[in-house]
Automatic annotation (TrEMBL):
Coiled coil: none
GO MF assignments: DNA-binding transcription factor activity
InterPro entries with a match to the protein in the record: NLP, PB1-like, PB1_dom
SMART domains to which the protein is assigned, alphabetical: PB1
Domain of life: Eukaryota
Any Pfam family the entry gives: PB1
Residue ranges of every copy of the PB1 domain listed in the record: 67-151
Name by which UniProt lists this protein: PB1 domain, RWP-RK domain protein
Lineage of origin: Eukaryota, Viridiplantae, Streptophyta, Embryophyta, Tracheophyta
Region listing for Disordered, in residue ranges: 36-58
UniProt cross-references to Gene3D superfamilies, sorted A to Z: Phosphatidylinositol 3-kinase Catalytic Subunit, Chain A, domain 1 (3.10.20.90)
Length: 153
C-alpha cells in the first residue's frame, strides 16, 4: 500500500492502474478510501474559453507582445517600424536590410548610448543591453535610434 497527497488530503491507495484518455485529465475517487477505484475525467474548459473565438484569442496574444519603435538611418534616409522585444539581432538586421533594399549586404547597426558613445550591435547580448530599459516600461518614449552602415570587410 502506498500513501499519496491528493488535493491536500493524505490518502492510502493499493496498487492502482490508471489509464489516460485525452490530453488533460483529473482524478476523482468513486468511493471514499474503500476500494480506492479511480476514474479519469477530462478537465472541463472554463466557460469563457469555450465561448471565445479564435480571433479574440489571437488579438489578446498580439496585445501581450512588447514592442519598441525603431528609427534607422542610412545615408539620408530614415525608416521607422515596430520591433518585438523578444526578437534578436538577426531579425533586426533583416528588417533593416529589407526596408533599405540591402538584403545581400552585410550591415553594421550602431546606436548612441547615455554617454553619447557610438556602440556597435555585434550580438544578441548587445541588443539585450540596448532594449533592457524598454522591457521594464509600459509607456513613455519607446524609440530606439539606429545608424546603419555597410560593413567594410
Amino acid at each position: 500500500m502506498s500513501f499519496r497527497w491528493i488535493c491536500g488530503k493524505h490518502v492510502s491507495k493499493p496498487n492502482l492502474s490508471i489509464e489516460a484518455h485525452g490530453s488533460s485529465m483529473i482524478s476523482s475517487s468513486t468511493k471514499e478510501l474503500g476500494d480506492s477505484i479511480e476514474t479519469l475525467n477530462p478537465i472541463p474548459k472554463p466557460p469563457q474559453a469555450r465561448s471565445a473565438s479564435p480571433e479574440k484569442n489571437v488579438a489578446k496574444v498580439s496585445q501581450d507582445i512588447r514592442t519598441v519603435t525603431v528609427k534607422a538611418t542610412y545615408k539620408d534616409d530614415m525608416i521607422k517600424f515596430q520591433f518585438s522585444l523578444s526578437s534578436g539581432l538577426l531579425e533586426l538586421k533583416q528588417e533593416v536590410a529589407r526596408s533599405f533594399l540591402l538584403e545581400n549586404t552585410r550591415l553594421h547597426l550602431k546606436y548612441r548610448d547615455e554617454d553619447d558613445d557610438l556602440i556597435l550591435l555585434a550580438c544578441d547580448a548587445d541588443l539585450s543591453i540596448l532594449i533592457m530599459p524598454y522591457s521594464a516600461t509600459t509607456g513613455g518614449n519607446n524609440t530606439i535610434k539606429l545608424m546603419v552602415q555597410i560593413a567594410d570587410d
